[in-house]
Amino acid sequence: MKTTVLPFTSFDDITLWNNLKEGDEKSFSMLFERYYADLVRYGNSLSPYEEKVQDCVQDVFTDIWVYRASLQGSVVVKAYLLSSVRKRIARLFERDHIFRKTTSTDSIAFLLEFSVEHELIDDDYATKEKVIHLNKLLNELPSRQKEALYLRYNQGLTVEQIAEMLDVNYQSASNLLHRGLLSLRKEWKGAFSLFLLLSSSSF
Amino acid sequence: MQKRNTYTEIEDFLSDESFQSWILSKIDEDGWEEWTLESRSRAKLVEDARHLLLAMKVPESNLSTSDIQKALQTTWLKIEEKENQINFIENSRDNFYRKYLLSGIAASIFFCLMSVWFYKSHFSKDNIVTYKELIDENSEGLVEQTNNSSKSQIITLSDGSSVLLQPNSKLSYPKIFTGNERKVYLSGEGFFEISKNPTKPFYVYANEIVTKVVGTSFRVKAYSDQPDVEVLVRTGKVKVRSNDLVGKSDQEEVVLLPNQALRFLRSDLKFNKITNITEDEELVRSVGNIEQLSFEFTDIPVSQIFETIEQAYLVDIDYPKSKLKDCHLTTSLSDQPLTEKLKIICKSIGTNTNFEMNGNQITITSEGCN
């Protein structure tokens, strides 16, 4: 999976970003190719309307190019892009009444369902069951906790970046993440005694 | 990679890219497998983290490379569109500022002019005479006609005299001339054709000058916002002097004969007589239709004569075309005001021919020529 993106990774995000700021179309295209699918997928977790989401992502890139001169130089490109897509979809929610499900931008439902990486589970049946059960618990989490977990572990954003994106302070973002996993652990405890395991590991 | 030795929570592993890549892509560059086996409790933690990661898979995007390329194309088109839009908005904003600036300048200029006017009308009264002051001087009930249109307007006075009033000009005159004088007041430009009456001289008051005539045609140009006043004589004889209001009692009087003109400099109250009007560029340029057209007709069809009058006075003449189509006239109308001209024409055509004037509309009724 990682090897397929190797030709692009020869330039890191921030180099491409700064070239883009200088008006380099190639860098722009490379960033687009690198993140487009990912951003669309993230967008789709906020809104199921695939075409509108693609439109939003394209608009985000359009604005980046058009207003490239006023872009900040020191950003985490991925976080910036994810955040821009989220804002734009939120705006779409506000504008489009048919499209709208909620009125407040920070209560957009994160609709993404985590799935199980079946091909990688070459363990015994019990492990498979565990993973499937965990997946079920994860998907039952409140959408905001789910989104925080997704941004933290699937997109690799820092807690600060998540806080900024979800428009909450650091502690709230940290709580979102923690509470997500904590409730998992509680559910988990009976079946796998993770709690005990964690406390024992701290020795 | 010794950072991992301090890991105590599942979260620590979950956010470790190297760990993720080991679990999800089976790329173990950092020897995770060996490291895990070093400690039993560590192994348990790693296992739980692994299970969680495996349960947190995000569905792969179903976008193909060509989908992404297509999206990129679309985005470049969007960019182009947006840039054009922005340029357009910026241009119109520029225009807006330009307009705004211009109206600002215009307003300032207007303000300056108003100040100058205020100053002049209040502090140099002895020099400049305005139309309004002239009107106020007159105690007779005056009628005022203003021409705000873009074409000349014909005014017929009670004595049969006609005035062709130019755009942006106004004329005040008594409805009926009484007494031994005929006085009118002009602001702007007018071409006067005065009916002859030696016992009742005709005066045109225009700014600082007074033009006295008995019966003649002449033009007076006296715009309040221009530095001089012009009088140009076509026929007859006129006398021009400065207005008493200006303050000189023993004023000179200038006599003008046909094709002579006079320019009065308002600033220093000086008369400039122009004996050859063809040499004065400004006068030549401002010659109107009426002064160029000849009213000397020798065996000319009536329709042609009417057409000349229409052009000269910018009036509309309605006449029975079929009845008058074979009528020809020989006449000299140069020295006559419009009503006189019409009277003479009607008389010449036949006894049962009459005219009626209603503003710019003239209607001729006739049973044909003799």
Automatic annotation (TrEMBL), chain A:
SUPFAM superfamilies: Sigma2 domain of RNA polymerase sigma factors, Sigma3 and sigma4 domains of RNA polymerase sigma factors
Domain RNA polymerase sigma-70 region: 31-95
Keywords for this protein: Sigma factor, Transcription, Transcription regulation
Domain RNA polymerase sigma factor 70 region 4 type: 136-183
Domain of life: Bacteria
GO molecular function: DNA binding; sigma factor activity
Signal peptide stretch: none
InterPro entries: RNA_pol_sigma-70-like, RNA_pol_sigma-70_dom, RNA_pol_sigma70_r2, RNA_pol_sigma70_r4_t2, RNA_pol_sigma_r2, RNA_pol_sigma_r3/r4-like, WH-like_DNA-bd_sf
A single GO BP: DNA-templated transcription initiation
Similarity-based family: Belongs to the sigma-70 factor family. ECF subfamily.
PANTHER family according to UniProt: RNA POLYMERASE ECF-TYPE SIGMA FACTO, RNA POLYMERASE SIGMA-70 FACTOR ECF SUBFAMILY
Protein name per its UniProtKB record: RNA polymerase sigma factor, sigma-70 family
Automatic annotation (TrEMBL), chain B:
InterPro entries: FecR, FecR_C, Ferrdict_sens_TM
TM segment ranges: 100-119
Source species, domain of life: Bacteria
Record-linked Gene3D superfamilies: 2.60.120.1440, 3.55.50.30
Keywords noted in UniProt: Membrane, Transmembrane, Transmembrane helix
Alphabetized Pfam families for the sequence: FecR, FecR_C
Record-annotated Protein FecR C-terminal domain positions: 295-364
Zinc recorded as keyword: no
Protein name (database record): FecR family protein
Organism listed in the record: Flavobacterium saccharophilum
Biological classification of the source: Bacteria, Pseudomonadati, Bacteroidota, Flavobacteriia, Flavobacteriales
